[in-house]
Known about the structure:
alpha/beta, 17 helices, 21% strand
Amino acid sequence: MTSDVHSALYLSIPFCRTKCSFCNFASGVYSRDLFDRYVAHIEHDIDRAPALASEVGASFDPLLDSVYLGGGTPSVLAPGQLDRIFAAILRVFKLLPTTEFTVEVAPGTLSDDVLASLLRAGVSRVSLGAQSFVDRESHSVGRLHSRDITLRDVARLREAGINGISIDLIAGLPYQTAESWEYSLAEVIALAVPHVSVYMLEIDDESRLGRELIAGGTRYHAHHVPDDALTVALYERACERLNAAGIVQYEISNFAREGHQSRHNLRYWHRLPYYGFGVDAHSMLSAPTPSDPDRALRIAASDSLDAFLAGAPPEITIVSRQQAIEETYFLGLRLNRGVELLAIKERFGIDAVDDYREAIATLVADGLLAIEEGWLRLTPRGRLFSNEVFAAFLRA
Ligand code: SF4
């Protein structure tokens, strides 16, 4: 991990307008009073960022390469609450003209006042959780917006001068078919947005849809969830069509036109330092010591909203050398370009590659990894089984 690349800031806003049936993330529908208390905690954590850095032996660089408000659905906050968060960011950090500043928005929650707040703060990029352009599919998992609302929000963002638009799609929603997926892909391509994310539906066993899939039932449309083979085919088709349209895959779930990859997410995959505040968020800071110039720390906030609001202190752990090696592999392999084995050797020593030779050889023989000119990368098949591949790199 290098530290000469400025900072990044992630803020988790765990509030949603409705709870999606497949999701068991620490997010939910809460009262506006609670929003206020939460925002006060976020302001406090942002204000304390320089003190936090000094307490753990990290140097504080106020220049932000990227800011990302995710969740949850940050756009459900009131404009005044967003303004308070943005003011705290500007009190403590400095934005550069090139800073990538992203806010996740659920279509239909972008009121004129919220949009004005984003513009005042200098937001340059909005990630829109469309999920599908077929209303029956998005409604089936609890989303309230329609295709028309998504199209309207894209037009409003562009009119306001925010052209850095990313659209999320989910492959594997209830009622999805090969034909309906072609329609969603055609819509997203026709919108000519610079960035698209495509996720294969992951249904948490503890979510309402997950429980219905296990126990049976029809309320959450479990009986219309596509089987795994269709979901995989939809994902593969998305890769094919988006690549052909010049929206090129650069990570398992992410596609971008030239120069529009998410800088913020690239920092995670490259293991560059960042601050992360809010429920279930964590910071990764470089905190070198004379005996350990590569020392990195993970500082994790509670994943419980109650505990977070009660002021539970974050958990601080030192990232061991072995963990750093593993992260370098499984985060780097998420990217289509993969990881450079020589760079890993130079950074961590020869054993960081030699220890994995056997595992790598097996995964190459299984067609899940490929080595080309010293770069190790997932094959298209490997992207479908990425968790199995990453598990082979876990030793700690
Ligand atoms: S999937 Fe996203 S929008 Fe839906 S409930 Fe979970 S966090 Fe909220």
